[in-house]
Amino acid sequence: MATREFAAHDAHVHAAPTSWIRKYVFSLDHKVIGIQYFFLALTAVFVGMFLSLLMRIHLIWPAAALPLLGEIKPETYLTLLTMHGTIMVFFVLTTAPQGGFGNYFLPIQIGAPDMAFPVLNMLSFWVTALAFIVMISAFFCGRWRAASRMDRLSSA
After folding, report:
1. Does pTM top 0.70 for this prediction?
2. CA distance 128 to 33
């Protein structure tokens, strides 16, 4: 009876990766996905710290012109504050403990060889990474550019 259960389990094991991209980028291994979540959270920490640094510079020197940003206006400051908070909550406080440590350690702690749905696990990481990229890109194409385009259209 036990031999038949192990044979059924071996039939569902995914094949070993054959290339570097399949092994480390689009991996189905829970440990690699956990490490990917951890590094995504670490990247989000550094982005959030940089946004916090920009806010603190503005508080110390309100009229200072920063390279590539110029003077930080109130709208830009509010954008920095909102993006900092959102990144720190959704991409650091949830991604690192739940995605990173949960994927890495949970199957080891319960004695499972892998997660139940490894493809879904990999896709959830890539959706989270895509959401982080969209969030960062929204900072660069914010509403002030769209509003200025609308002002130009309405004045024409």
Report:
1. yes
2. 12
Tokens 């440990």 — which residue? 31
How many structural domains does the chain have?
1
Q: Which domain holds residue 106?
A: 32-155
Q: What is the mean pLDDT of residues 58-69?
A: 85
**Spatial contact of 27 and 121, defined as CB atoms under 8 Å apart:** no
CA distance 26 to 39: 15
| Max Cα-Cα span within the chain | 80
149, part of any domain: yes
Question: What single letter denotes the amino acid at residue 65?
Answer: A
> Which of 12-21, 47-56, 126-135, 146-155 comes out lowest in average pLDDT?
146-155
Contact between 121 and 115 under an 8 Å Cβ cutoff? The reply is: yes
